[in-house]
Structures are given as structure tokens and as C-alpha cells.
Specification:
Blueprint: E1 10-25, E2 30-46, E3 50-54, H1 61-68, E4 76-81, E5 84-85, H2 91-94, E6 101-104, H3 118-129, H4 134-147, H5 164-176, E7 182-186, H6 194-211, E8 214-218, H7 222-228, E9 231-236, E10 239-245, H8 246-251, H9 256-263, H10 270-275, E11 315-319, E12 322-325, H11 327-342, H12 349-357
Parallel strand pairs: 3-8, 3-9, 6-7, 7-8
Antiparallel strand pairs: 1-2, 1-4, 4-5, 9-10, 10-12, 11-12
Helix pairs in contact: 3-4, 3-5, 4-5, 5-6, 11-12
């Protein structure tokens, strides 16, 4: 008889995270509004898993990743890394947490200092946070170059001498230098050729297996996210509208926006591609400085209802592990509860309230 499976441990816990950037105006440059880049976002990431974050450009994916690492002073909310609250932690205290959480940036050229050699770039975190001697530090640099598939003989070359894929490997080696547990990958393949993208993603998967890493993988490439992620969160205009296991999300999305995104994924089989029904969204994404009242997606949703223009839908679990924020599901749930009540079942107070709200 096999032993019961151990419960997964939450490494990252984000609750009601808000990241609003003030808008100043007038002669005195007073605050006249705010850009709601991330607006009340909640999710968990378990040890050893990859959480994919997908959505259109400008939906707040990258801002969310940077806020989770506290590269910004957040507006509101809670961020816990391995049980430690860092959302309100000062920068001096955060310095002690930096080795455990690192980031791989989107542009492999812009994030590398052109005046430093590869060895200097990879060794910089070791100089700032480590206590290794010069010889031990250089040996650690060589180990990291081996881990990401870079030739040791290139250690004294400068970033301009490398291809885009090689520069991204340098960035990954730098992120691994301090043996982190959690890495935010901010569109690490967006600036690379398609042939190189697969190499970088395969490298990230290998490093995850070798070092037990936990990833937050931000991308707008739905096919690549399906390949690497264990669970996927879909963002729209600063909010998470759906979060579920990868297979459940791709095979049966529940939110209308997710359905539209999935219909846009190319199908390699021509016979299947011919039967795919594309969902074309009308209109433009609203401004995060002036989001619509009610549901953020109500101005473009093909299934919009009257309540969507008035009330922001609750973000809750509709199936085990499947979280959605949509009034359609609230209405379906209320109808199901009313049907159960008419056949003799006693609806709960929660169901009654949902039915009245719908």
C-alpha cells in the first residue's frame, strides 16, 4: 500500500496585490488619478511548479512579476515568500531576501552591462551577497556557465560578442548565482528567434529539475506556456480573470476572454485548423487609468449581461483548483441551486444570496 501523497507547500502567496502608479497634473503636479497596472490580484505558487501568466500586451503581467519580487513599493496587498511577509518590508531588510528570489529579464541585451565581461556579470551577485574568495568565485562562475551551456573560454568576452540566445543564457546564469528558490521569468523568449526559444525553454526546464526551482513564467506565447507551465493564470486589464491547471484551462476555459485567447492559438493540423471557430473581440482594451465600471471585460465581452456593467464579478473557485471571475458562472451556479431547491434539496444561504445578486 503506497503512502499518502504529501501536501504541496506554498512557496509564494500573493493576496489582494495592487500596484497603482499615480498620475500627476496641473501646475502643482498634484495627483489627479492612477494607472491601475495590477488591481487586486491573488494567487499561490507551490514549490517546484511553474505558474504561467498570460494576457495581452499592457495587461499588467510584467508589473505583477516585478511587484512580487518587490522591485516596486506596492500600493496594497500581501506578498509572502516561504512564509515571510515582504509586501511591507523595507529595502534594507529585503536585501537579505534577495538571494532566494531572482529574475530573468525580457531583453537579454538591455539587461547586461556592455562594459562588463561575462565573468564579471555572473560574478556580480556573488560579490554583492556572497563571501567567496576570488578563486572560489571564479570557479563558481565556471560552474554556472557549464550549467547553462556556455563555453568557459568565453568568460572574458563582452555581451556584444554573443547571440541573443547566448545572452539570455548569461542572464539565466546570473539569476542562478545565489542558489535562488524562486525565479520570475519575464518573457524570457520574446526577443529570441523561434529556433532559439525552444532551447531556452528546455534549459529552464532542465535547471528546474536539477535545482528544484519554482518559476513564475510570464509570456504572451500561449503555445510555449502550455509546454512549460503546470498552472496558468490569465490576466486582463490588471486583474486575473481565470486560473487553473494547464490542461483544464486549455481544454475547457470558462471565462469568455480565455475562450477568445485559446481560439487564437494556431493549430498545426490543417484538418483541425479548418474547424476552429475564431472568437474576434471587438473594440480596444480600455485604459488602466480609467477602467470601466463593473467587469473590466464588459466593453468587449461577446456574452455580456446587464449586471456586468454594474458589478465587478467575484473571483472564486468554481471547480477544484479552477478560479474564475465571471457573472456568467455566477448565474449558472444560481440557476443550478434553484433547480436543486425545486427538486427537494435545500439551498444554502450562500446560494440564495447568489441567486438574488444574479
Amino acid at each position: 500500500m503506497s503512502a499518502p501523497a504529501r501536501p504541496r507547500k506554498k512557496l509564494v502567496e500573493v493576496k489582494n496585490l495592487k500596484m497603482h502608479f499615480p498620475i500627476a497634473g496641473g501646475l502643482l503636479r498634484r495627483k489627479v488619478g492612477a494607472i491601475k497596472a495590477v488591481d487586486d490580484v491573488s494567487f499561490d505558487i507551490y514549490e517546484g511548479e511553474t505558474l504561467g501568466i498570460v494576457g495581452e500586451s499592457g495587461c499588467g503581467k510584467s508589473t505583477c512579476g516585478r511587484a512580487v519580487l518587490r522591485l516596486y513599493d506596492i500600493t496594497e496587498g500581501s506578498i509572502r515568500i516561504d512564509g515571510t511577509e515582504i509586501g511591507t518590508m523595507g529595502q534594507s531588510s529585503l536585501r537579505r531576501m534577495r538571494p532566494a528570489m531572482q529574475m530573468v529579464f525580457q531583453d537579454p541585451q538591455a539587461c547586461l552591462n556592455p562594459r562588463m565581461t561575462v565573468a564579471g556579470i555572473i560574478a556580480e551577485p556573488l560579490e554583492e551577497h556572497g563571501k567567496l574568495s576570488g578563486k572560489a568565485r571564479l570557479e563558481r562562475v565556471f560552474e554556472l556557465m557549464d550549467a547553462v551551456g556556455l563555453n568557459r573560454n568565453f568568460a572574458n568576452r563582452y555581451p556584444h560578442a554573443f547571440s541573443g540566445g547566448q545572452r539570455q543564457r548569461i542572464g539565466i546564469a546570473r539569476a542562478l548565482a545565489l542558489n535562488p528558490r524562486f525565479i520570475v521569468c519575464d518573457e524570457p523568449i520574446a526577443a529570441l528567434d523561434v529556433s532559439i526559444q525552444a532551447q531556452v525553454v528546455n534549459l529552464l526546464e532542465k535547471l528546474q529539475d536539477d535545482f528544484g526551482l519554482t518559476y513564475m513564467f510570464i509570456s504572451h506565447d500561449l503555445s510555449m506556456v502550455r509546454h512549460i507551465a503546470d498552472r496558468v493564470a490569465v490576466m486582463y486589464l490588471g486583474k486575473i480573470v481565470e486560473l487553473a491547471d494547464r490542461d483544464a484551462l486549455y481544454e475547457r476555459p470558462l471565462h469568455p476572454y480565455t475562450e477568445a485567447l485559446m481560439s487564437a492559438v494556431p493549430e498545426p493540423d490543417p484538418a483541425l485548423e479548418a474547424r476552429v471557430e475564431r472568437i474576434i473581440l471587438k473594440g480596444d482594451v480600455p485604459s488602466p487609468a480609467n477602467p470601466p465600471k463593473g467587469c473590466n471585460f464588459c466593453t468587449r465581452c461577446p456574452k455580456v449581461m446587464e449586471i456586468c456593467h454594474r458589478v465587478d464579478p467575484p473571483y472564486r473557485e468554481h471547480r477544484p483548483g479552477h478560479f474564475v471571475a465571471c457573472h456568467l458562472l455566477e448565474a449558472d451556479s444560481a440557476a443550478h441551486d434553484q433547480s436543486a431547491g425545486s427538486t427537494g434539496a435545500t439551498p444554502t444561504n450562500t446560494s440564495i444570496q447568489q441567486g438574488e445578486d444574479a
